[in-house]
Amino acid sequence: MKFLMRICFSLLSLIAVTSSFKEIDWKRNQSETGEARLRHKLFHTHYNPDLRPVVNRSDKVTVHLGISLHQIINVDAKNQLMQVSLWIRQAWFNPFLTWNQSDYDGVNQININAKQVWIPDIYLYNNAAADQDGALDRFKTKIVLSSNGRNMWLGPVLYTFSCKIDVAFFPFDEQLCSMKFGSWTYDGYRVDVQMEAEEGDTKKFVTSGEWDLISLPAHRNEIIYVCCPEPYPDVTFTVQIRRRTTYYYINLIIPCALITCK
């Protein structure tokens, strides 16, 4: 009986040791992959995410900004507000986060947390939501980092922003509501905000029951504010919409006309 117990104990010990070695080998193999070595090279060799990604202090970081408009949630004439659902794209280059793909098993892109790298502090200037500050650095999505140093950050957002809504020609009115994006603390000499394209993307726009989307042009502006002598660039997207009149014809105008005729 004791002999059998010794054999069982020996077998169990052997299994435990073998499993430990397999786990060690697995961890070693994982740490030796191209992506693991790349991440160690990029982020564990004195990289500081608080510093602007420029070789010379006088250089500026160029951030290209674009949006995809998904839906117009609400147009609030009483409170002069518009609420929209967007995807926002930010792209910039970081010369300190580049690599040769052939040195890392052909890895050409990795997904990284925003806290690991420098990110621009782009804000929606005319944000009007009480529970949001309009910052674009709150995205929980990851940044796609390419071997040439390009950072691409795409994230969904629901924005409420101020808009001067004029209903004098209701129900035949058109509205122009603008979203103004720019850096909150960096002037144009340090962070230059540029348009990704001359207009926002509307390919995935969900049609509104009350409004037709006419256009979504983009414009870049440079403004010198009273506080500071440096220029502050911004990219402004203007949502141009026209009210659909069919509903009001059927439910308002025609009944009123019939009543008047009587």
Describe it.
The protein is α+β, with helices and mostly antiparallel strands and 262 residues long. It contains three helices and eleven strands. Strands 3-5-6-2-1-8 form a six-stranded mixed sheet, with no helix packed on it. Strands 4, 7, 9, 10 and 11 form a five-stranded antiparallel sheet that branches. A hairpin with a 4-residue loop joins strand 1 and strand 2. The protein is extended. The termini are far apart. It is a multi-pass membrane protein. Keywords: Cell membrane, Ion channel, Ion transport, Ligand-gated ion channel, Membrane, Receptor, Signal, Synapse, Transmembrane, Transport.
Beta-strand segment tally: 11
The chain-level mean pLDDT equals 87
Biggest sheet overview: 6 strands, mixed
Uncertain parts: 21-28
How would you describe the shape?
extended
Helix content: 10-25%
Note the gap between the termini.
110 Å
Order of helices and strands: HHEEEEEEEEEEEH
Q: What fraction of residues sit in β-strands?
A: 25-35%
Strand order of the largest sheet: 3-5-6-2-1-8
Rg: 28 Å
Per DSSP, the total helix count is 3
The structural class is: alpha+beta
